Give the backbone structure.
Amino acid sequence: MEKCELLDTCGFFKNFKGNSEVVKQGWIKMFCEDRNKSERCARKKYREQHGVAPVDNMSPTGKML
C-alpha cells in the first residue's frame, strides 16, 4: 500500500496524530495510509475544489476538532 501523497505535509496529521480522538477514530489509518482510501478524504476533496489546504483542525471526515 502506498500512503497518501499529501500525508507528509498535511496540517491535520502534523497537529493531531497523537490526539486521542484521532487515534480512537482511526482516521489516519482509514484515510492516510492507503492512497486509494485517501480519495474519500474530505481534506483532500477540499484542496481539490479550492486550490488550498483546509484549516488544520478539519479532520479527514470533514469534522472540525
Notes: Residues 45 and 51 are 10 Å apart (CA to CA). The two ends are 28 Å apart (CA to CA). The chain has four helices and no strands. Residues 1-65 form one domain.
